[in-house]
Every structure is written in C-alpha cells, then in structure tokens.
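Hi all, posting the design record for the shared folder.

TITLE: backbone redesign
STEP: 1 of 1
STRUCTURE INPUT:
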C-alpha cells in the first residue's frame, strides 16, 4: 500500500520516488520535490523508500547502473543540502553507506561462489544452461543436437 506524506504545499507521491529510484532518473523526482514543500519529514520518507526499494540495491556488478545511481544519489544529496538541510543530507549518506556495505557482501558471496568446485563442475557439465530469445520468449535450440539447452527460461525474459 502506498501512503502519502503531506506538507504545506503538496504531498509526496511515493510512486514518483520509487519510479525514479528504480530507473536512477533524477529529473522526475527533482520536478516533484520542487512542486511540494520538502522538509525533514519528506526527506526521511524518501530515504526510507530508498532503503526498501529492492531495485535500488545493485546485487551484481554493473558499472552502468552503478554510475547512474551515483549521479542520482549525488543529485539528491545536493538537493537535500540546499533545500532541506545538512541533517537530511547526513541521513541519506548514512543510508547509502549501509546500502554499499550490503552490496559489498553480495559481491563477496558471488566471488566465493565462483571459486567453488561445484560452480566449476556445473559450468563444465552444463555449459550455458539456457538461451532464450527475449522477444519471443522461446528457448533457442542447441546447434549441435537441435535440442533445447534446458527446460528453464531466463528470469529476465520470462
């Protein structure tokens, strides 16, 4: 359920915050914040939404998304410093530090998994588990045997 945080001039629309956070697109959020009276309560609510936005957390190394998110965070940080105050900017900094620590844990888990014997054996036996045409959502047959690589579809395309 999406709630609203009211202020003197307008209401924080969480859908705008979440959509901006998911896409790392600062412009819609900046426009929305300029339309409402952004205070410490609104800033706290935004930081809380970022904390709970699963798509804001980058679980696998992705330089492009990391750079886009950094621009988003820097822009929000400057906005808070200029329009709300240092307390809001500090709250955001603390939350981002926690998110980065969580992501470092994900990266460490991935590194550990890549070096396990089971991971090497799985890759050696099965090779690419599946190839899926993302447009048609169909499994692409293996060229050698003309059989599907696997009976599973990619989570990103399904």
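Okay, here is what came back for every position:
SEQUENCE:
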């Amino acid at each position: 359920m999406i709630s609203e945080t009211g202020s003197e001039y307008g209401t924080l629309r969480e859908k705008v915050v979440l959509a901006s956070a998911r896409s790392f697109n600062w412009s819609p959020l900046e426009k929305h914040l300029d339309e409402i009276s952004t205070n410490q309560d609104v800033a706290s609510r935004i930081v809380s939404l970022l904390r709970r936005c699963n798509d804001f957390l980058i679980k696998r190394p992705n330089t492009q998304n990391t750079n886009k998110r950094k621009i988003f965070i820097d822009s929000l940080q400057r906005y808070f410093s200029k329009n709300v105050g240092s307390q809001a900017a500090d709250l955001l900094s603390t939350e981002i530090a926690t998110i980065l620590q969580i992501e470092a844990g994900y990266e460490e888990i991935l590194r550990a998994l890549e070096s396990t014997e089971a991971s090497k054996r799985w890759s050696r036996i099965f090779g690419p588990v599946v190839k899926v045409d993302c447009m048609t959502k169909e499994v692409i047959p293996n060229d050698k045997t003309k059989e599907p690589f696997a009976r599973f579809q990619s989570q990103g395309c399904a």
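COMMENT: Residues 128-158 form one domain.
Let me know if anyone wants the other runs.
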